[in-house]
Amino acid sequence: MNNLWILNMGFVALLIGTGIYCLLTMKNAVKLLIGLEIIAKGVTLALVASGYARNNILAAQSLAITVIVVDVAVIATALAIIININRHTKSLDVRKLTKLKG
Amino acid sequence: MHLFLMIGLVAFSILAVLTRDLLRSAICLAVASVFLALVFFRMNAVYAGVFEVSVVAGLITVLFITAIALTRGDQEVAENKHHMLVFPFFFLFLIVFDILVMRKLLGRIPAIAGSEAGTFGEVLWNQRTFDLVGQIGVIFAGVLAVLALFRQGENPRKGDTTLPGGQPQGGSSHE
Amino acid sequence: MIFLFIIIPLLLAGLMPLLGKISKRFLPDLLANATMLFLLVFSVLSAKPLIAHGGVIQQAFWFGAPLNIRLLLDGFSLFMLFTISLVSFAVTLYSINYMEHYGAKANYYALLLVMIAGMNGLVLTSDLFNIYLFLEVAAVASYALVAFGQGHDELEASFKYLMLSAVASAAILLSIAVIFGLTGGLSFGTVASGLKMLNIKYVVGFCSGLFLMGFGLKAAIVPFHSWLPDAHPSAPAPISAMLSGVLIKVSGVYAMMRIFLNVFGLTPALTTVLTVLGIASIFVGALAALGQNDIKRMLAYSSISQIGYVILGFGIGTPLGFIGGLFHLFNHALFKSLLFLNAGAVEQSTGTRSLDKMGGLAKRMPLTAATSAVGSLSIAGVPPLNGFWSKLLIIIALVQAKMVILAVLAVLGSVITLWYYLVLQHNAFFGKLNETWKSVREAPFWMSAATVLLALLCIVTGLVFPMVIHSWLQPAADVLSGGVAVALNFIGF
Which helix (H) or strand (E) holds C71? Predict the structure, then answer.
């Protein structure tokens, strides 16, 4: 059981790594959100796999459902912001978002 | 079988990142979601699997496609040309690193096994009631955020959705 | 009935869109302010006596029927609840006038109330997953509030904020998933006892790293601070006050300290990391603030610097350090929201945020100038205002813990703070009146009322600080210095 958990966590790490690569290198705002979504998938998988390995699958499921609901809210807000930005700049390129310098 | 599903999940995620076309990217993401849902089914997490299919593969994909349709017609974003070259190296490095770490950890991590009985509904209602309050809160936040961002005069977003959304289907120059 | 702290703002937020249809301004204004006043009074009069003998776990009721919701109220969470209610009351008061020209007031109040409900939930929960969940409730509302003006800057700042904050949430959740996989539980007590039993240092180290990154991003500690100087100035002034005043402290500092001190237990390595990051934040924030011309950006960088003091105080790990950190957290909530509200008043009257173009505004806006002077002197640590005492406590704690070099650096940071706040005061309010601002008028009534309230609180807190420490800070510091034992006490519930 324990080794299966570690194997699953290995796949979680791959998913999150892919998502981080996307966030770091892509320039399209929607693509960045897709990267975020992949990271979220990895984390949901981590939660359910943890529950499965520890015989807590019912609790893990309810956690996973909550995470999915949170995800929908975040993605909807982000897409609303992107559509609004698109009205201003007529582009999805995040390199054009340089008016503010953090 | 488990391994096959996992590899499918990762592969479609990678495709979603590397594909140029946003629409295909969103669809790859949906397929990855379906794979994840199958993994959940195999882990006896039926409710989570159903949710994953209906909400992530369904609703979020629809949201993505709507947003892509709304923002199309503008010029394509020029991505870095070298992703096809850079990513395999990155990913290979990731896999090697991953395997090394996991081999070290195999069989070395102690853990406490839980035990639970009852049905899904009982657990949700008896242990995680507070989550429901949080879910209501997050849904409120999301709905209000969308309302606030699309407020323009008195007709919020219905007006805009149809206008630019109709045209780009014909002009999807990428095909 | 501490459940009311979460459910009242949430219910009202649900009703707000309907109320907005009935009356555009009056009802939303009235109800939002009444709610915040109620929560403020409630936290002092009703919740305070509950914890006279240490923390309690209270079960929530819904119309008489018991729910399976157990809320943890102890000195630390009550202290945070009080801070949240106080700042939000000042902010809603200020919004009555300020939010007029943005439109959609009901929607604005609804989002603000959801954010407050999220923060209250975070503070009252005793479960790791709920910390993540309520963090997200507050965060989603704050993304929309930063972008509320719908201008280009607002949207850009909000997008960057959302991206970084979502990554931070993912890091936090991943760490929670690993802990769930190890201990099979999520409540503070189960996790603390499980980790104690398993005794696996490297995995706890890994999770601590993820938490440090996640909560550090939310709190804008130095390597993770880049989003704050964009997001906080772009938001409408009351929201800047809310974000800088309480959100970064609740979702960053509170959550981090609750987990590190009460669940994981403070280790020497963690002390080192926290103090170093604290000092780094103090200097990076202060030096960046020196070079700013935009008044709100200067305040935003100053927030990074002051959060550094809070983290430094907590990081020392001694009871006096905790008191100093908590006191500075409270004081910063007061004077930073005061300064942001004043900056908003100046921006509304003159239409600019650039310090170069201002000058001599004290003649036209005497109240704003006076309250701003109180806030500036207080944040710079001039006795006998409140900021002086909290910084003094932190420095004494550093000396007691034999970290003299850090103490000297903290004093130095305070000097830089004094410097740039003098620059701000001088350029904006004193000197010769710029001809352009001949016809500028003082801020409207409710805006001035909010700033005067906060300025008076700054002065009073400074004068009666022994009492504040005794009745509010000591119980909170006791919880923190109790360490893991506090969480283990609640395991049976």
Answer: strand C65-73
Write out chain C residues lying below 8 Å of B145, CB-based.
111, 140-141, 143-144
In this structure, what token pair is assigned to residue C185? 């539980």
Of the residues C68, C128, C136, the best mutation for testing chain A's interface (the one with the most A CB atoms within 10 Å of its CB) is C136
Measure B27 CA to nearest chain C CA, in Å.
22
Chain B residues closer than 8 Å to A17 by CB: 90-91, 94, 98
Q: Which of B26, B51, B59 sits opposite A65 (nearest CB)?
A: B51
Q: Is the dihedral of CA C393, C395, C396, C401 positive or negative?
A: positive
Q: Which pLDDT does position A71 carry in this prediction?
A: 92
The CATH number of A2-95 is: 1.10.287.3510
| ipTM associated with this complex | 0.94
d(CA C457, CA C245): 14
Let me know if residue B100 belongs to a domain: no
Rounded (5°) CA angle B54-B56-B62 = 90
When divided into structural domains, chain B yields a total of 2
The pLDDT-based confidence of A88 (bands split at 50, 70, 90) is: confident
Nearest to residue C70, comparing CAs of C484, C482, C487, C490? C490
Helix B83-105 to helix B2-18 angle (10° resolution) is: 150
Residue B97 lies in a domain: no
Within a 13 Å sphere around the CA of B41, how many CA atoms are in the beta-carbon half?
Answer: 12
Contacts of C197 in chain B (CB under 8 A): 112
Task: Tell me which of B106, B131, B144 to substitute to probe the interface with C (most C C-beta atoms closer than 10 Å).
Answer: B144
Any domain includes B114:
no
Q: What is the mean pLDDT of residues B155-168?
A: 34
Q: Give the pLDDT confidence score for residue C468 in this predicted structure.
A: 86
Instruction: Provide the H-helix boundaries in C261-356.
Output: 268-290, 295-316, 319-350
- Inter-chain CB proximity A88 and C152 less than 8 Å: yes
CB < 8 Å to C184, chain A: 54-56
Distance, CA of A85 to CA of A79 (rounded, Å): 10
Q: Distance between alpha carbon C363 and the CA centroid of its chain, in Å?
A: 32
Range(s) of the domain holding residue B138: 121-167
Using CA atoms, how far residue C72 sits from C120, C263, C327, C408, C491, in Å, is 11, 14, 22, 38, 12
Cα separations in angstroms, C362 against B51, C335, C371, C382, C457: 59, 19, 11, 21, 21
Q: Which of A11, A28, A34 shows the shortest C-beta gap to B16? A: A34
In a mutagenesis test of the C interface, which of A12, A28, A74 is the best target, namely the one with the most C β-carbons within 10 Å? A74
Domain count along chain C:
1
Nearest residue of B to residue C125, measured between CA atoms: B130
Give first-to-last CA distance, chain A, whole Å: 46
| DSSP output for C465-486 | HHHHIIIIIHHHHHHHHHTHHH
Q: Which residues does chain C have with pLDDT short of 70?
A: 490-493
